[in-house]
Amino acid sequence: MNACLSKRFVFGCLCILYLPGSALASSSESSSIRWFENQIQQHPEVVAAREHKNAALSTADAYGKPLYNPEFETELEREGEANNYLIGISQTIDWRDKRDTKRQLASADRTIAEQTYESVVQQKSAEALQALIQWKAASQLAELAVNQERQLGRLLDLVKQRQQAGDVSQLDAEMTILGLSQTFSSTAQALSQLKKEEAHLRELLPEWSPEAALVPEIAKFVDTTISNNPEKIGQWLNAHPLVMVSRAEWDASKQSALLANKAAKADPTVGINAGQSDNENVIALTFSIPLNVRNDFSAEAKAASQEVLAAEAQYYATHRKQRFAIQAAYDVLQQYQKHSDRWQRLMQGRGKRSENLLKKKWVSGDLSTTEYLLALQQLTEGLAAGIELQTQFQLARIEWLLQAGQINTALESK
């Protein structure tokens, strides 16, 4: 998916946010994106991820510091009438340049921290966009259920009037009452689901509100062009946060193994002392080095090398898994797009026309009340299925953007 299409789609999702009508009318596309991003940044999980990232970056900064601090030494003794003393300083030398290796390790750790945070933000952004889509669907289904209940209520009034006139039987009235009673449960479920979706959105977007809203139809913002270009997918795959984290962990394990090998070799310590002994000035040079005789630390170095092999295998596993996840998301999206387009062409404007036609046929006596009720139920189920199909198509689009790692790219490019 090119950047333009991604931007248009994400903006379309954001346009279903409940903002005051005047504010939405006057706000620009970019301000809607900024509002959404600000809401995501305020979410506690994102705040926690950001602080974890900052902590990891601070730890990585420590890797660039020198390994050893100088040591100050002093010695004082009394020998007869003389006061002997020594003052000196010593420094352990990073003989094998472990500091540079730790700098390389810090670079990999920074990538891990940043991409882990990026992954959390993308996941939370996708979750919020999907919640907006599901809330929109719940709103439509609730409206459909309420309309059906209202329609059957009006139908019952008409049936009673016609029954008094002798046009319909008592059975017709009973069937209408049964049909109306069945809608009560459906309406209650639809309205309850809408409240659940609203609560979910408030949890994800702290300042979201359903009051005084202008809600454009999201479908008109969804460009149905999808891309399965291998070159593009390869670029997205290599830049995907999970893949980058896995690659950085492999790089970090290499540096850790190199550091373990260097740590197995002892570093020397040199120093210089000056003082007085028996009223004579004394200057001394010192040199010391640990003798790795009882423990040569080779086991630690071997373990670190084995971790490199494990991290390499994990990287290829993550890369492979994500590649197939992108392909699967594309295949799912393609199916939903195809059937969504077919449904749109089949049902465009037909709902209201079918409703009017059925009522006309019932009034004229071409349809019995039972047949009319059954037809109305089928019409409602068909419209509800269309809402569900459109919802799944939009959710599949978000899932594809998430698996391709392009949600934040689309948002940030506004």
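[next item in queue]
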Amino acid sequence: MPGPDSETNDTNIVWFRDDLRVSDHPALAHAAESGNPILPIYILDEESENLRTFGAAQKWFLYHALAGLNSKLSKLGSPLQLFVGNSEAVLKKVVANNDISGIYWNRRCGKGELDIDTKLKSEFSSMDFDLKSFQGNLIHEPTKTRTGQGGPYRVYTPFWRTLEGQGEPRAPIPTPEKLVAPKALKLDGVVDIKDLNLLPTKPDWSKGWETLWEPNEDGAQKRLTTFLDDEISGYKEGRDFPGRKNVSRLSPHLRFGTVSPFQIWHQVKHKEAAHQIGNADSEKFLKEVAWREFSYHLLFHFPDIGWKNFQTRFDGFPWRTDAEEHLRIWQKGMTGFPIVDAGMRELWQTGYMHNRIRMVVGSFLVKHLLIDWREGEKWFWETLLDGDPANNTASWQWIAGCGADAAPYFRVFNPILQGKKFDADGSYVRRFVPELAKVPDNFLHNPWGAPKEMLKQWGVTLGKTYPYPIVDHSVARDRALAAFAELKKAGE
């Protein structure tokens, strides 16, 4: 085996995708063990079939995560090389022009991604170099985690039990101590990070985000440490209250792999074993990590879940086709329901939305407005930093009632009661809907219920400074239940 200072020109390619870190990176660790020079690459692929283009918010996070990864790799000895184009074409060109001894990557689960990997393995199978993929982004292997009947899981709870029954996940893999940079490579098509055109310019709607997020590997570890040290206590109950800090905000980091689920799992278990966090809080948090795993399980086994109803009986649901204006109002956070509007504005202003509020605004879109869940999924994909090909679609289908392990159709979130229950002190609404800041708690979540004279004293004029509700809750609820009941009746 060549030593770390070997003069060999044989180079190992490490292809980074949704795993923008150097710690607990199986493909990088394996490539580095050989002692061969390492060529780390990232390909912004918007050309291959069945690959979904990143949403605008995701691109912002991706830019900074790539910059952070390059900094880490450069310090180890071999900087990141960036390419734009069809993944297969880029890799074949690099291989054709250089002496390559191996290509390594961590597996992904989407249909387009799997198609690329399968094709590359077939194309390169006859060539004299090593080609391996690794389990780096999911704790479970979708190909191996099966029900007792040998099929994929369709319900979360038995999936969780199976995952828990598999024992502790492997320990995180240490970061390589050093990487050897290749010499005299021919790399046509390498671009500068600015050439990826990932950041918004006209207008730059991301101003201020750098104070909210540290979108790189160091930021992920800081966020995890802060959450486990200061914020996980009370998580089981507190995670439902958007005004509290009992949420991890690790979802964008998981989406781009600036942290791995193995790292999260073991740090949680370490804190739990040291009695620094309670079992109820740690178990609930790990179940949320496992929901992401379940979503990817579904994506792998049912690759069209992103655009097709998981439950096909919903194909006949009477979604409104004349609701473009209501969709725009919902997107802008101007529905007249304060908790809904606060959530939609949090999304636009921060690239993030609290999980409880995601359910509230999602339910409002599909049940109060009868707008197809796919419209909501598209908006979240565009505006969420953590827009995730598995989580986003599985969660929207769950909200709509047409997904795996879905919420029952008769569960229609009452946005007024949700606000009063989970934002009783109004801290969340007042932060994102400042025009209602002076409205007292008893009217904050239904300002139309207050006398006009009192609203005027609080600086509110409905229809001018804040909108009237775009629908009547009771009427919209009854309409939704009738539509879902008809659907159920038709399927019997």
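[queue empty]
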